[in-house]
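Dissemination and training. As part of the outreach component of the grant, students in the summer workshop were shown how a complex can be specified as a set of sequence lines and then modelled as a single object. The example used during the hands-on session is reproduced here so that future cohorts can follow it. Participants entered these lines:
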Amino acid sequence: MNFENHVLKNEEKAIFRLRGLYQKYGYSQYKMSKFEEYDLYVRNKDFLVSDSVITFTDTNGKLMALKPDVTLSIIKNSKDTAGCVQKLYYNENVYRVSKGTHTFKEIMQVGLECIGDIDNYHIYETIFLALESLKSISEKYILDISHMGIITDALDMLDASDEVRAALLKCIGEKNVHEITQICHAAGIDEQKADVLKQLILLYGQPQQVIPKLRKIIQSEKMTAAVNQLELLTDLLSKNGYGQNIRIDFSLINDMHYYNGVVFKGFVEGIPTGILSGGQYDKLLEKLGRKSGAIGFAVYLDLLERLHSDTPKYDVDAVVLYDTNTDLEAISMAVRQLADAGKSVMAQTSVPDKIRYRQLLKLQGKEMEILENNA
Amino acid sequence: MKTMLNVALPKGRLGEKVYTMFEKAGFECPSIRENNRKLIFENPEIGVRYFWVKPSDVAIYVERGAADIGVAGKDILLEYGPDIYELLDLNIGKCKMAVAAKSDFYDDHQKTLRVATKFANIAKSYYTALGRDIDIIHLNGSIELAPILGLSDVIVDIVETGTTLKENHLEVLASIVPISARLIANKSSFKFKNEKIEEIMQSLKRQTEETV
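and obtained this result:
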């Protein structure tokens, strides 16, 4: 495709590249309506990133919502087919509350979902596409990978109340080891048992360094199975050249009610928060009474605005001034000539405010006179 | 050129103490000791840049990535709830978040409790956990004045030595949470500047363990 580089913004370029990428690997676009019945979100509130949803009453009296999330809609409209996997991608706006202003914001999301009989290949492919997505956005990217099976098991071992568990989860997300010690002490939890959890969140690094250490920490069969799966996947990813870009990080947690297997989060240098988030969420489908498994991720494109791009020095290459006496054909000729020469051009009778131009020209009869040259 | 590690330090005595710890960790920046009004100090050889910010703003600089790491009080982290890594308890700047009231205060549970505080979120979550109905009066300073003038029944504030409370005939009713300075890191920077951050973290950890 031939699109002019300087016309498109970072996020627009990313959309084109990502759509191309997903289509190449057999994902088809899923297009949906802006609205969804509010009921869908009420029943699965915890799955949403933010609690608030914009609602309105439709003409038939039904309470509708502007989509805060795409995954739920895709899942709702997919079917369980034994031995089959549905591969879909989307490029949609969602509406969420922004933390800073506490007001609703429109966020552009691109993502993909793989729904059906998920096996290790599909998990590998999804992580691979997540890595490729990050790579298409920036050269400096890192994908953190974790496994919910390991963290869930480490937490289950502590046998903590819901309240303590929630407090511990918060600490895990913050890599906050000192407070885990305090919480466990206050709740009368055996220090040795809490040690596993603490060691897990302190581990951080490339898989080949972390996995041998991980094997020394883990205790249950469930954890071993999860580590084996992590190793299988990360080995293959390393073989394919992504070793430098993946890190194992158990502080990465998604909601335990929905996510069960591998989870991951992507970062690019220069953007302070994660721009890609995903994982395996069989439990959500289970909750909806479905047999299938699912894995997917979303890329938050609104954040790419912050990524370094050269702000153009000029708004326009040439401003052509004319007056009421100038011949109409002469103006159109002059503008056309400049545009054909590959310049951006703006015809005006006077110079607009706050416009940065490379060249200011004045049309005198059929002749063009250069008044100013900034280049 | 070396990549720079940006460090947000809280202005004031605590910040100076923290800088000394960073210096011991091998991340010195001599120009910071010069007595002037500059806000940013760099040591390009080591690749570190320090800046002084208002203590309550450190978490914002770090969360938004203007600083890669910083040192902030637990009170600020609890109140603001930033999405960051809390890597280490530095065990300095210790104090506690507490509820205080006039010495003759009687807690009438039939009435809504009026709470004056700078820390609305901490106060809210403390009383929600107790199931108590409260009214928050958000003040920005001289919180101790509120119960004396009858503006509030109690205050939720930081208590260091308790001298200010005593001089105003107030006393601590309950401790909410112990507070100390924490080393925090931006989640994205932690990935891309991991080696340096780990190095600082390990050294600061040794230093705090030595002083305990």
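Chain A touches chain B through 18 residues (CB under 8 Å). Students were then asked to discuss how this feature might be tested experimentally.
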